[in-house]
Amino acid sequence: MRIFSKDVRLQDITIMYFTGLAALMVILVASYQASLPPLPMPFRMPLDPLGNLQLAWNISYATQEIYIQLRVAELRHGVVLGMSDRGELTNADLVVLWDNGTRSYFGDAWSDSKGHVSLDSHQDYELIEAKQKADGFYLLFKRPFSTCDPRDYVIEEGTVHIIYGLLDQPLASLGDLNLSRIHMGVQRVLMLRPDMPSPTLPPDVKTMDVLAPNVIIPNQETTYWCFIQKLPDDMPKNHIVMYESVITPGNEAIVHHIEVFECAPDLREVPQYSGSCDDKMKPKKLNFCRHVLAAWAMGAEAFYYPPDAGLAIGGPGSSRFLRLEVHYHNPLLIAGRHDSSGIRLHYTPNLRRYDAGIMELGLVYTPVMAIPPKQHTFYLTGYCTSKCTRTALPPGGIYVFASQLHTHLAGRGVRTVLVRGGKELEVVQEDQHFSTDYQTIRVLKKMINILPSDVLITKCTYNTEDRSKPTVGGFGIMEEMCVNYIHYYPRTQLELCKSHVDPGYLQKYFSFINRFHGNDQCVCGDFGVTDQYAQLHWDDFAGEVLDSLYNTAPISMHCNQSTARLFPGEWEKQPLPEVTTILPKHRYPCEGGAESYS
Question: Which residues cross the membrane (predicted)?
């Protein structure tokens, strides 16, 4: 890689240390900076809890490149920035700025399975600018989305796990660096965003803040704080047209994500509450506040609804109660910090043409679906069948403009595909580096029209290598979910389009596996499904047969109206949709027919 001139290579930088690393780098790039126009950085987020490291970036879809700017408030001997599958320090793609006490270096590097760092033979990070400013040291560089280097991370749509760290000591060589021996952190972000301008808000827009009531953030690493806010009793129907985060200054690196839920409309009263969401003494009615209105995560921008649609709030048949949930990530155990962060809703009384709706796709919350223990990769799939969409959708269909993916702790990936005429048509949403710690509503690159008789397939990937017992579906954090909440218009009565394996076929599975392992006394009817899973002898064969069952057995469909009742029809023992896979698995082809993998 060549950076400052055609004759100066990275490893040839040998200027002596006169006034420190920052001054050194300014000298190196002084003539280069003069010809650079200012590069806007529309996306930014803090990395560390104290705000000493800030990441900013811009995207060029035309050249398939990402421009990254790193601000270091106080730089000593260097900085490490990297990306890995799930935030691991091992097998990570890195860019490193370091010094040996007399010379400064910048380069593309990688870590091995033990965290040992080596310089990459392919230098794919291109340094653009390094400059000391009043508020810190700035490093600007770029790299392609995909480099076709097997040691490099593929930057694609979905969650990117960023790792970072500061170097407090000089390095004789980069080979002396081991990430396990320095203080490192991890942050998650959606780096690739849709390339579209923000719509203009109407002149009559009003705002409503749903904020934490001056909470003292607990001095523990993870806190979920819940707060109930009541809407005005006489609030007429309005349309939410945009929402954005409101973060208390100084807490930008601690407020991790925020969600606002609408309570069930039939709840006439919900007790006032401000406290931990995990408190066993919290009012039980909070469990009936699950309808997502807004979701924000660190690094996310304001969320705009399409010009023709808005999310209804207020008016007859709506709830008068909202539940705010704020996730505080406080790894430094900072004490005494006050917070009033939350969501600002922008709404208008001038109703738009369509009500927006939210529909659940994926798997029903039931222990019928389970993941065996000790699995590196296990898939569960939920279906929204052609029979349901044909029954519930209008002739012109619906338009999906955003979605929110959801699993619990074992989830590793989520993918929803649209199928039409038995063939995969397009991916609705996908995240193969999904983390339950980073959940936000994601705007689609383009609206997708779902027609009657279309099929929607949501497939989730799980890892249970750290578990000795099976993981069943359910609401508990150690149980699992596989959901895609799609945001669409016009709103229909179809609230939920999900499935699970037919219970009768599951009982045949329990009977077969028990007999295979010499247990001829079937207790299938004497225990619940969770206990039956727990009592199985789990080996590779039991897991393989369960996977085969899920991919061949009939399903029970939940084609539910907003009243939680099924649409009329027969929904039990439905055959699995027949689908021809035609969508490519890999996004970026490389030279020589190779593929770049994430």
Answer: 12-32
- In this prediction, residue 587 has a pLDDT band, given cuts at 50, 70 and 90, of low
Q: What is the CATH number of the domain that holds 127?
A: 2.60.40.1210
How many whole angstroms separate alpha carbon 583 and alpha carbon 585? 6
Pairing of strands 357-363, 494-501: parallel
Residue 232 lies in a domain: yes
Helix 503-516 vs helix 540-552: angle between axes, to the nearest 10 degrees?
A: 160
Tokens representing residue 493 in the block:
């009565």
| Residues designated as active site | 224, 406
Q: Mapping DSSP to helix (H, G, I), strand (E, B) and coil, where does residue 510 land?
A: helix
Task: Tell me the range of 160-164, 265-269, 514-518 where mean pLDDT is highest.
Answer: 160-164
Residues 516, 419, single domain; the answer is: yes
Query: Among 69, 63, 120, 64, which residue's Cα sits nearest to residue 91?
Result: 120
Q: Which H helix or E strand runs over 139? A: strand 136-144
Q: What is the pTM for the complete model shown?
A: 0.84
Q: Which domain holds residue 47?
A: 43-190
Tell me, yes or no, whether 253 and 359 share the same domain. no
Q: Cβ(151)–Cβ(78) under 8 Å?
A: no
Tens-place pLDDT, residues 469-493: 999 998 777 889 999 999 999 999 9
Q: Domain of 426: which CATH number? A: 2.60.120.230
